[in-house]
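Weekly modeling sync, notes
Attendees: AB, CL, MP (scribe)

Item 1: holo prediction request
CL wants a bound-state model with flavin-adenine dinucleotide before deciding which constructs to order. AB pointed out that an apo prediction alone won't tell us much about the pocket. Agreed to run with the ligand included and paste results into these notes for async review.

Input as submitted:
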Amino acid sequence: SAVVYWMRMEDMRLSDNRALSQASAQAKLDGLPLIVLFVFSPQDYVAHDRSARRIDFTLRNLRLLKYSLAKLDIPLHTVVHSPRRDIPPYVISFLQSVRATLLFANIEYEVDELRRDIRVCELAKKQGITPTYVHDKLIIEPGVIKSQQGRPYAVYSPFQRQWLTVLNADRDKYLAGLPPPEANPSSIRDHPTYRTLFDSPIPDHIDGFECADRDQMTVTWPAGSDAAREMLRKFLYTKSRSTHVGLSDPLEGGAEPSDKRSRALVYKEQRDKADRDTTSRLSPYLSAGVISARECVRATLDLLGVKNVKADRDSGVGMWVQEIAWRDFYTHVLVAFPRVSMGRPFQEKYADVKWETNQAHLDAWKEGRTGVPIVDAAMRQANTMGWMHNRARMIAAMYLTKDLMLDWRLGEKHFMEQFIDGDLASNNGGWQWSASTGTDPQPYFRIFNPYSQSEKTDPTGDYIRAFVPELRKVFGKDVHCPPPKLADKLGYPRPLVDHKEARVRALRRYKTPGSE
Ligand code: FAD
């Protein structure tokens, strides 16, 4: 018999991977071979608006994983399976074909995935197979952080305080590094049941998810845990660079150092600037689990030479760890309030806000032709890089929902379809925050002025100039809000709506959901 680890899209790494580590330890203990299974489910990718870039990133990571596992004589078997409702019986039949008695997997928290896994457990038990599902995605698993009344938090700040207390009280439990799998006996390659598994190829692409800019993505977002670690190391240790975030190789950094301290150390002051390379750019790697969140937090302890995790607002590293806590928070929200993953607002009172129906405006937003330079730069950054700076995401999302008054779910879907780092919980959380329908305690009348936001987030204008070529020669305040005549001359569109008027409309519609 054998032990199977079922790898998912969110745990694409060998070290510090809880289910894999446990599967390997069990296989060793029982003297059984370890086999890795990966199931592509195109129907799920359609249902969850997965981007071709994300699927391609998965394939690129799997190729490296297959190679590393083969060196340990561990086969990685991949299969493309439809329809998705038949994945549970397929997995069971695979387990039977390799005579597995034990199945290990990391939990995926989305509703469809949980339902699928419950079915797998039911079927497995009937066949005498023991399934083990473990928490791995987050630093602290859902359900642990609760208010004094025993309820899940619906606001970030108290969640984060509690998160830090629980984490530091049991640091070894939550941050311990987990060993990579141990090698199988090499004789597995001669075994008639297992040898063919080594030959199953990683597909070139998944039909319907062909990645048109694969070459560019490969340069901008190289696959593999080594690349992720190198990005983390550069973020923590190498000097802050003055280059703007462009299509450069992220591992290259940029031109001249602008600060003696690393990006992590100046993160508090710099992180909201989109015109410089100010953040870690690790989100594609964290979303796909190419690096674990635990490893990221452990690395901050090494950097600071401390034992206790810092997640305060007074230091760059503390602020950065708070972002990792946001990642935990949004998945906790998704688990505690699954309606958010089914297109429902977290704050149900906003379910009836009246949205505009305007395909031309939606298309202009998607293509970066709104006539508001910071929004257009943001959207074009997404279109070219498959990624967007956090502040730019907030500005673009706020503009769609408050200025254009278009339904936040249209934006949520578009981001998932574009981004290489698409994560249901974080994307939904970010959209509902921006649309004021989410967990944020700020009321609906927080409406960004995209022009003043632009001056704060892109003080040099380099971000706009990098992504909006029509404005490449425009400097000073004009780049944030080009005068109409200049815009016409440069072939840059006029704004779709007047911000002041749009603001009044948004306030009215939120104040009385259902009103025109
Ligand atoms: P850093 O600033 O270096 O932060 C480190 C890590 O912390 C990130 O890689 C990410 O894993 C986590 N993080 C940072 N900010 C947030 C946040 N606000 N919420 C949750 N986690 C956070 N993040 C995704 O990973 N996937 C998404 O699909 C996604 N969609 C978003 C949609 C909107 C509308 C908004 C406003 C935010 C969204 N975010 C999403 C959160 C955030 O914008 C990105 O995580 C961040 O920009 C990634 O860049 P970075 O890795 O350089 O971040």
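Recorded for review: Residues 1-136 form a domain with the Rossmann fold fold (CATH 3.40.50.620).
Action items: CL to compare against the apo run; MP to circulate these notes.
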